[in-house]
Amino acid sequence: MYQRIADRSWNFKTADTKEFTHCYHTYPAMMIPQVARTLIENYAPKDKCTLIFDPYMGSGTTLVEASVKGINSIGTDINPLARLISMAKTIHFDTDKIQKYISQIQVMPFLYSPDKVENTDFSRISNHLFWYSEDTLYKLSYISQIIDSIEESQQLFFKIALSEIVREVSYTRNGEFKRFRMQEDKIKQFNPDVFGIFESKLYRNLEGLKQFNSLKSNALTKIYDFNTVFDIPDGVLPDDSVDMVVTSPPYGDSHTTVAYGQFSRWANEWFGFPNAQNLDNLLMGGKKKAVREFETKIIDQELKEIEIQDKKRYLEVVSFLNDYYYSIKHIAPKIRKGGRICFVVGNRTVKGVQIPLDYFTAETFEYHGFNHEITIVREIPSKRMPTKNSPTNITGAKASTMCNEYIVVMTKK
Ligand SMILES: C[S@@+](CC[C@H](N)C(=O)[O-])C[C@H]1O[C@@H](n2cnc3c(N)ncnc32)[C@H](O)[C@@H]1O
Predict the structure, then answer these.
(1) Residue 212 Cβ < 6 Å to ligand 1
(2) Exposed / middle / buried, residue 82 (Cβ in 10 Å: 0-12, 13-18, 19+)
(3) pTM score, two decimals?
(4) Of the residues 35, 62, 228, 283, which should be mutated to test ligand 1's pocket, given the most ligand atoms within 8 Å of the CB?
(5) 1-413 sits in which CATH class?
């Protein structure tokens, strides 16, 4: 059995989770920086740790923490927004230049008039007048126009602030990751200060950037878009090249768990990124498969219980686990002997049956040549993710999904 240890010191209830460039951009199910930081401090292999890999990097929390510690890192994510955020957070933009451009941007509201907006073609944004007022669309386009006039090496700093606001100033209900339009009466009163919100993000991010730059880290960060379910290119990561993996994978498909694609669609469409509209189908578990393609003893009973109750839900779970299994199979050989993996996972409940993804993770890595060290159980006080779901589709019949997360630590034999 893979021993679990509950440890309250991992709760980080009062920690500042927005230090450095961690303040830049919200993202669903972000890892708390202190978790990545403490994992690196406590579990990086003692003999050598020069390369950390995050196979599902999301908004790049691990990459930033690796950089803070002066360690090179590689991350991948098939969500273009995740790559945009991770890239922005790990670049040491020039604060003097950024400050100069921000002063120019401050006068933007006074110079703006709709007839100055050059690009008024919003056809890349599906149903754009359902989600935005015309006034907001014009102002966002004007901001894009100003960003295009900034020197290229500094543009991403401004794009990342725009990326965050395209969602905030839309008619979506901002408290949730899924795309739900506000009620009509709310829309009538909704008149966001587009330029003001943009500017406030820039100032907030500049403070984070200054803190990040003050560390004077010269660690290298590389960001990719390969899908570990299919392959990890040898040219990027040869076998036995990784010292440590610090990551938090999805805990189920995006349709029934965290809606990464829906959350990201605002920015992905605004910037014209590929697959903006069908991302959730491409993420792990997005494509339904009819058969179980992995071996498991440890969660076999749970899977059988779900299958008896609901064949469709069972196939959803199995489709996710198939992908997750292949992903681990591809990650395992990349880690060198004595290297560590730290997987922060959630154990969700389906049809009243909790799926111990931590056990499945440990079993699968063990099968691929790893020893289990410890599984730390931490409470998740501030992680922004749904704690309830509706497995029965009956309103009011909700089961608790998760309030703990499980940090599986293993060493390559
Ligand atoms: C829990 S989030 C990671 C959050 C991240 N640790 C952070 O702090 O922001 C999981 C990520 O896995 C990504 N993902 C899902 N399927 C993937 C796949 N097949 N290959 C790469 N990334 C994938 C999602 O896009 C999402 O960004």
Answers:
(1) no
(2) buried
(3) 0.95
(4) 283
(5) alpha beta
